[in-house]
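Chapter summary example.
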Amino acid sequence: MTETLRDSYGRPVTNLRISLTSRCNLSCIYCHAEGEKNPDAEMNAREIINVMNVAAQFGIRSIKFTGGEPLLRPDLLEIIRAVPADVESSLTTNGILLADMAGDLKNAGLRRVNVSLDSLNHDTYKKITGSDRLNEVLAGIDAALRAGLTPVKINMVVLYGINDSEVDDFIRYVRGNRNLVLQLIELMHFNDCDYHGDLAGVEAVLASRASQVLTRRMHHRKKYCIDGAEVEVVRPLHNTEFCAYCNRLRVTSDGKLKPCLLRADNHVLIRGKKGVELEALFRRAVEKREPFFR
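The structure predicted for these 294 residues follows.
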């Protein structure tokens, strides 16, 4: 019988988020890289595969690959092919390399992608990311749709005073396509970026415009159906529901289990571990999980 990991607050862990690298081909003004600064320390493919296999033994049902930019890893397809059977895999990317890789990713077994895209305006995109690669990202989204890496979720980090006026533009971008979903993401305070804004007001406006509101199991967040567009709001800050319904454990690219998105003082080192030793470290990390906001 499969053992289900459950923390002392009764929250089951069914989702694993694995950072494959801290390397990236953009320089976004708000990026914190979750504190990971040493690309030379990233785990190799065998270590990542060991982690995925143990996770599957504990009933983990979905794995999301992140970075940095995971498409920069030359062994990415090898890792995706090794995802255990009955575990769904997805990936978050900035989309720059996606047009050339979408078909291979799908053939390797990847289910879907999230694409980070904070502006549909070339000048604003360049201001946020450091370079104008917008056309490449849009081409990557189109390629992902053609390859069937769906639904493609568009991750828009809302930056007040920079791109907050584009929310309706993004709603129009996904409108009418059931394979596109917009995620509005609240900026977290990890560095000196001054563009944070509470998305509670934005969410209230979306609720007033929605013909239907659905509640997702993940973090109990809402999905708003607005004139043929699906919009989700991700608000991790000062959000008791986000924490109360969290079912995720994270793995850093340098080989640590991270029990909480919002903390960096309770990591569990798993580098080079496997078998029963790695299983014990998974249990220890889950024991350390507690809601950041209560």
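To summarize the output: The domain at 15-287 is CATH 3.20.20.70 (TIM Barrel).
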